[in-house]
Design goal:
The complex is a heterodimer of chains A (134) and B (89). With 134 residues, chain A is mainly beta. In chain A, 10% of the residues lie in helices and 50% in strands. In chain A, the strands form two sheets. Chain A has a six-stranded mixed barrel with strand order 3-4-9-5-8-7. Chain B has 89 residues and is an alpha+beta fold. Chain B contains two helices and four strands. The chains are: A mainly beta (134), B alpha+beta (89). The A-B interface holds A 11, 35, 37-41, 43, 50, 55-66, 69-74, 76, 87-89, 91, 93-98, 100, 102, 104, 107-108 and B 1, 3, 5-6, 8-9, 12, 33, 46-48, 51, 60-66, 71-83, 86-87, 89.
Chain lengths: 134, 89
Amino acid sequence: MATLRGSLDSSRSPVVTIAVSAPSGPSTFFDAVIDTGFTGFVQVPELRAQELGLTPRTASETQYPDGRIDTIPLAWARVTLGAEVQEGFIHIQRGSDEAIVGVEFLRISRKTLVLSITDGTVLLIDTLADLSLL
Amino acid sequence: MGFNSREVAKAGRKVYERHRTDFERRHPGKYVLIDIRTEKVFMAESPEAAYRKAAAEHEEGPFHLVHVGERAAFRSRRLPNGDATRIAR
């Protein structure tokens, strides 16, 4: 598959555009921060999840850097990156306005993240050999 | 949303406690999805794989997801209210 390009946001965090939908619903695009400190699949704000009709049927816990553990509802959903579609657990996050892509998404989609803050380069590639094609 | 995640997690933990010693000795690092209605347990290498096992048996949940041997199934290095509280290391 083609290399996917992302960008840096105003805080120089890597961002990539994904589309999220319920398994049989319409999709919405998100500019999602690629956060390698998040071990989950994808997180979306609660309000946006409600608009998408994502139905939470699973509860789980997330531990934050201050040691706090919060119970988070999860919904099974479809996430599109470029031409590839993956399914997984969407974390429905209260009190957040961010969409986040975590390491589980990178694992499932078998993507390698290439990041240069200096050059403003954000790439999601299939293998490091793809870099020689750029 | 009509889904009380804290109540679901509480019920799931009760089921998990019955298996904890065995799971943590024999399956550390695996993910366990518990249907709190039927109390069936589905174990796999990832949350998504555990869900697919449950879906294959037409289990509908509600479910509680546990990472065996961990305090929480997931970790996040940012607090839930976004950029203003992001933790840097």
